[in-house]
Amino acid sequence: MSAVFEVERLSKAFGGLAVTQAVSLAMAPGDRVALIGPNGAGKTTFVNLVTGHLKPDSGVVRLAGEQLNGMNPMQRVQRGLVRSFQVTRLFPEMTPREHLALAVLQRQGRTGRLFGTFWSMPEVLEEIEVLLRTLGLEAAADRKVAEIAYGQQRLLEIALALALRPKVLLLDEPAAGVPQSETPRIESALAGLPADLAVLMIEHDMDLVFRFAKRVIVLAAGTIIFDGAPGDVTKDARVREAYLGSYADDRSAA
Amino acid sequence: MDANHPANVAAQIARPRFSASADWIGLAAIFASAVVGYLLFPNNLALLTRVIGIVMLVLSVDLVTGFCGVATLGHAALFGAGAYAAGIAAAHFGITDPIAMIAAGAAGGAVAGLISGLVVLRGHGLGQLVLSIAIVNLFHEAANKVASWTGGSDGLTDIAPSPLFGVFAFDLWGRTAYVLGIALLVIVFFLLQRLSRSPFGMLCRGIRQDPIRVAAMGASVRKTLLKMYIISGMVAGVGGGLNAISTQVVGLDSLSFTLSAQALVMLVLGGTGSLYGAIIGTVVFMLFEDFVSAANPFHWLTIMGALLVGVVLFAPRGIFGTAAQLFDRRRRR
User: Which UniProt keywords apply (chain A) (predicted)?
Assistant: First the structure.
């Protein structure tokens, strides 16, 4: 299948320090890719370069064949490149239903409307209802976000991303900060993501990575040192070296 | 019947209780207060009309500060621009029809809102506050310089509005101006109630709570705020226009930093983020000011200061915000 998301020789240096060096990757619709790497490997910089929050020194990012260079973050979102945040970024005084209403209305280009409410838009309510049901958020739908459990907030982050109907979804540590007891719900939400959506997940939790990803990319010191099947990643010598042997050895020993 | 048809799904979802009835109660309360004001202070209608004009200014501050989280100490620029636009329309162009003057005020306020927004929204936090002060001072100086149009420090006079709808002349007791003011306030309040619940209103509240999330949804924070600034300018401009009609003079004080700061104080007093808070804060501040300054002309500012300190320390959500919170707690019990 042809690539929906392509990154070609993306590079960025801060001062003399090259934090992203000629990173290239391509993803097809339905791909489930995990991006891992030790702290300081340049994962966050990579995401910021792709989403348009940082300007690359060189390199190209394409979404569905369209070059994104020069577009601001908003334009990229509108074209279908959507991200979630490592620490939830939600509106504490709004309910999940209101969040999803905003996302749906924004996708439809209707957030500029000065009159009417989403309560009187049956098709919007229906779409919100489906999203709430998909992520199991019905019970929390009309409570303020500040009052709902953190695990539910993380699910809402995913629901918000889906409400924008992305082509490519960048998930930044979707399970970060969630208590152990609630991670299964996050995992089942991830398993239930639309089949034709390309997902790039940045994650530290290796168990989650191995269960979710069909392909793993390892970033170290700004370059890709591994790109392949999850089963092979722990066997790779360069990956072991990047992690100073610690984690890779644990896994292969287990 | 198909239970999954969008219209049926919509019917199954319980709507929150904000409902239209609360809106009508609010409008009825404004109307009732207006009648009470008219009956209690028949000789003070000019003051009450001025209060209405300032209520519009404070509502306008609330739109950008309370709803969007943009701090401003220069919002009188929008109010004064409306007052001068209405006044200049009457004094220099012979547009003396009061409705047309109000329209000129709204337009003047909108333009001032656009200009202020373009400058103020460049900054963040403290920088934003400083830019807003700079704006109102620049407007003030500009109005002072073009004295041939604005009357400079003498103020703009020769404003003689013709009878409202050609029938109701603006009398010495200010009855017509008061009724016009109440009518405008009810209309503006009705529209702002709608606005605050609209998709645009929701987006603005979202920006106050987390602008980065709003941008991640693909919405432009800057464009949204600029639009709100223009709307806010129209509201303040209507208030300025009303003031020009009611007093038949426009002075430089309507473009002052002092008025801007007072408007913010009134909003904090009443409670930010709520339309009712803006009204209550203004009415309490201005009536209290009038009453206290008459009772004790020397120390009234001290008493005002004490009132403000008390509110900020013991009711940080303002009068309306605190009352609403108490009411909410009791209901939940």
Answer: ATP-binding, Nucleotide-binding, Transport
- Residue owning tokens 């207060």: B33
Tell me the residue length of chain B.
333
Domain assignment present for residue A67? The answer is: yes
Structure tokens at A241: 């070296």
Residue B108 lies in domain: 17-254
Residues of B in contact with A117 (CB under 8 A): 197-199
Chain A residue closest in CA terms to B202: A102
Inter-chain CB proximity A125 and B10 less than 8 Å? yes
Answer whether residue B64 is part of any domain: yes
Is B257 in contact with B76 (CB distance < 8 Å)? yes
Please give the tally of structural domains in chain A.
1
pLDDT in tens, A210-245: 889 999 999 988 899 889 888 888 888 888 887 755
> Is residue B197, in this structure, part of any structural domain at all?
yes
Judge: B202–A102 Cβ closer than 8 Å, yes or no: yes
Token representation of residue B313: 């320390």
User: For residue A29, what is the domain's CATH number?
Assistant: 3.40.50.300
Flag if B213 and A113 touch (Cβ within 8 Å). Answer: no
Residues of B in contact with A92 (CB under 8 A): 209
Spell out the residues 6+ positions from residue A238 whose beta carbon is closer than 8 angstroms to its own: A218, A220, A225, A226
Domain span at A198 = 5-95+168-253
Q: Would you say residue B111 lies in a domain? A: yes
Q: How far apart are CA A131 and CA A122, in angstroms?
A: 14
- Tokens 């591994």 sit at which residue? A226
CB distance from A90 to chain B under 8 Å?
yes
Chain B hits for A126, Cβ within 8 Å: 6, 9-10
pLDDT band at B18 (very low <50, low <70, confident <90, very high): low
A contact residues 146-175, partner B, Cβ 8 Å cutoff? 160, 164
Q: Where are the alpha helices (DSSP H) in B217-297?
A: 221-247, 257-270, 275-295
Handedness of CA A32, A38, A39, A40 (dihedral sign): negative
Decide: helix, strand or coil at residue B163. coil
Q: Which of B195, B213, B218 sits opposite A74 (nearest CB)?
A: B218
* Mean predicted confidence (pLDDT) in A197-213: 90
The 10s digit of each residue's pLDDT in B106-154 is 999 999 999 999 999 998 889 999 999 999 999 999 999 988 888 888 8
Per-window interface: A 101-120 vs B, CB < 8 A: 101-103, 105-107, 110-119
Preferred mutation among B18, B202, B214 to probe A, highest tally of A CBs within 10 A: B202
Indicate the number of domains in chain B.
Answer: 1
Asked if B226 and B117 count as a contact pair (C-beta separation under 8 A), the reply is: yes
Contacts with A123 from chain B: Cβ below 8 Å: 6
Nearest CA-CA partner of B118 in B105, B136, B104, B131: B131
ipTM score assigned to the predicted complex: 0.86
Predicted pLDDT of residue A1: 53
Instruction: State the Cα–Cα distance between residues B99 and B97, nearest whole angstrom.
Output: 6
In a domain, A147, yes or no: no
**Cα distance between the two ends of chain B:** 40
* Residues 6+ away with beta carbon under 8 Å from A148: A96, A140, A156
